[in-house]
Design goal:
homodimer, alpha/beta, Rossmann fold, two-stranded antiparallel sheet, 8 helices, globular
Chain lengths: 256, 256
């Protein structure tokens, strides 16, 4: 398989940097190909703005989303964005590795989503039936996406009733709102807890767990979110009452 | 009251720009003071890195969080960050206005959190009992925080069983994981739906609703999240079984 590994940590001499090396070694040994987008090392531009596309002297009011789509269709998005598109096209699996800051991705990675997954490319594409392909279908359909993230807190705080919220629900904007929204299959996230206090034996176990996750990745079941097009939602995009009856909240969007 | 209004939209000639003007006019008319951090106009640096502090030739491995805290304690954080700290100290209310991109804040705003709310300032402060002040207490205790955000989707999709997830749960990383975590009272978010198709009458109603929200803000009840220190959580930071029994997920962290 072909992996695009997007790495968003400012320091390679870190727990995350070591796990990156470990992960790439594992991929090489098991015969997979990979490319790496090391966002800090690349000096990746985080902020989406009019510099992302040839504007031909745009003096009018900026509609960012519409301009992104136009520039994508005309092939005039900036070089750094088009290079990421080429890497994505090449890859079967996208890995996003980052320390969890404020319960989300660092700004440099958020900016990768804001700038790369533009309308007309990642989403906003109509299917043969005239409906927009979304949630389980879209511009990135057929690919898998894996989050590898580190947190300082203990695992219990991210459990079903933990104070930080269940980790899969905290990551819902990425897993469901970004990966699944653009058609990718979201794999269960690989989370390193207590990252600030990782001992040598813990690191060894984590590295081994990561290798196992990468080895078994082709057979790993994605998070079973419901597709938008499968009849589960009504015209207002509300889950039909006979499904997960009397439940509400993020978990109703999983089939199990 | 004193408002710090953090605005994260690339275009002032936009629905968000108009609502910003409307909101500031309302504050002025009702006798409140305000300051504005217009992040795009300021050219705000989004990416947290070693340039955020005087490193005195830092050649060692970068521990970003620890260096941020050290620089804060020594008063050597970069000028732009210290200026935001001064504005925050001055303010009673923080307003965060942004278009919802990928179900979260634009990178430029995410970077405001990553760079400004450093350890020792926003969080990681110990109380007299030796425990870390967090969730309902912290460096920003006593302040209120309001999200104003715009989405293209209809309101139904962000309801209790809507496909995008309940808006308050999608915004949990900000409301609970950032505002409440640092001690601020998170106000119910002000969400503008169908923002891409806003008609003149809809705009007039939205502007009027916003004025009403700002007028009644001092009396508005915050989202009733549970404080960490109130005895609701056990030592593993798991909600005690007698509270919201048999429930799980993000909603258990609300008292009602």
């Amino acid at each position: 398989m072909r992996f695009l590994w997007i790495f968003a940590h400012p320091e390679r001499q870190s727990l995350n940097g070591s796990l990156l090396t470990e992960g790439l070694n594992a991929l090489r040994e098991q015969g997979d190909e990979y490319r790496v987008s090391d966002l800090y090392a690349m000096g990746w531009k985080a902020v989406a703005d009019a510099d992302d596309f040839a504007t031909a002297g745009l003096e009018r009011r900026l509609f960012l989303g519409a301009e992104q789509e136009r520039a994508f269709q005309q092939g005039v998005l900036s070089d750094d964005i088009r290079e990421e598109h080429r890497k994505i096209e090449w890859a079967d699996v996208l890995v996003f590795q980052f320390p969890l800051w404020w319960f989300g991705p660092p700004a440099i990675l958020k900016g990768w989503f804001d700038r790369v997954l533009v309308q007309g490319y990642g989403f906003g594409i109509k299917g043969p039936d005239g409906r927009t392909r979304r949630y389980g279908d879209g511009g990135l359909a057929g690919k898998r996406a894996l989050i590898i993230t580190s947190v300082g807190a203990r695992e219990s705080g991210f459990g079903p009733r933990g104070i930080h919220g269940p980790v899969e629900e905290v990551l819902f904007p990425l897993l469901h709102g970004t990966f699944w929204y653009t058609g990718m299959a979201p794999l269960p996230p690989f989370v390193v807890y207590g990252a600030d206090r990782c001992t040598e034996p813990e690191y060894t176990r984590t590295a081994s767990d990561l290798r196992e996750r990468l080895r078994t990745l082709p057979a790993t079941a994605p998070v079973p979110y419901r597709p938008e097009s499968g009849g589960s939602y009504d015209e207002a995009l509300v889950l039909r009452p006979e499904l997960a009856p009397s439940l509400r909240g993020l978990e109703v969007h999983r089939t199990t």
